Amino acid sequence: MIQFLDLKAQYQEIKQEIKKEIEEVLESGQYILGPKEKQFEREIAEYLGVKHAIGVANGTDALIISLDALGIGPGDEVITTPFTFFASAECISRVGAKPVFADISFEDNLNIDTEKIEEKITEKTKAIIPVHIFGCPCNMDEIIEIAKRYDLFIVEDACQAIGAEYKGKKVGAIGDIGCFSFFPTKNLGGYGDGGLVVTNNDELAEKIKRLRVHGSTKKYYHSQIGYNSRLDEMQAAILKVKLKYIDQWNEKRIERARLYNEKLKDLPIILPKIYREDYKKHVFHLYTILTQKRDELKKYLEQKGIPTGIYYPLPLHLQEVYKDLGYKRGDLPNAEEACERALSLPLYPELKEGQVEYVAKTVREFFERM
To answer: If DSSP codes are grouped into helix, strand and coil, which group holds residue 184?
Structure first.
């Protein structure tokens, strides 16, 4: 049976290494901000090419704490995409600022359309949150140019894109701050929640470290209101093991995506771009196609034992919680269309080539029956 994602298969490959690390944590008696967490921060900072990597409790906290560290709050506006997981906008609301949505581009694998950003900027705009959706880097050169022109911060939401690259740089290491999630389904996932904030700015790093422990640098002495948001020692130990494999796992995802693209070409669907790797390295957290027959195809595949996913069924600007922002259907047509047409097919490193071929064959059968 084909699964949409098989976390058990990955665990079986590294089970002994994981057990050893967990046993060492349990024996140590150090469970919060211990030596494993510090070692993981050093190793992932080196991997990403940044000065500072700061473990937090989850990807959402990473985004919230980043905006807080930048001083963004009530009266401010932050521009982001409407085609993403809710946390990308929720973090803006959580610090009291206003999310402003710019439409997406079908030409850039459903990332934010950089040509739509500038028209959204007002005197209240303080930052841009580009989301490297499904593991595909945004067009960062254009975003950096806009940010410099208007003196805006860039907070990269790289929660789905660990290991992805833009012109030789790891995403998350390009803007002022980068945010990552280690939710179990991510390309680099823990066995529970976890997140990371990265930056090359020393002052911001100190603020973020302070904010994650109740605004404190010395125990029981607090200089600001902070959070209780730390990457626990157990998750850090697990992630330290898995970090060694992330590049080879990502390469397998890319190989499976290439095979899907080869087997699905010439069908009435839009396939994700692979890109030249010297320009963008897309690490395929999800393999997502666009089709006018999304719901019918989904049902057909499920009848054949092939699970699929819809990411995302409703764009953020049309969510009930944001009705007071005044958006209406038709305001951001690309995002709305994507939510009606996007379908994600099974993809994970352990997925066999034969399974990819079976999924593609079944998709082709669906269209040939029409």
So the answer is: coil
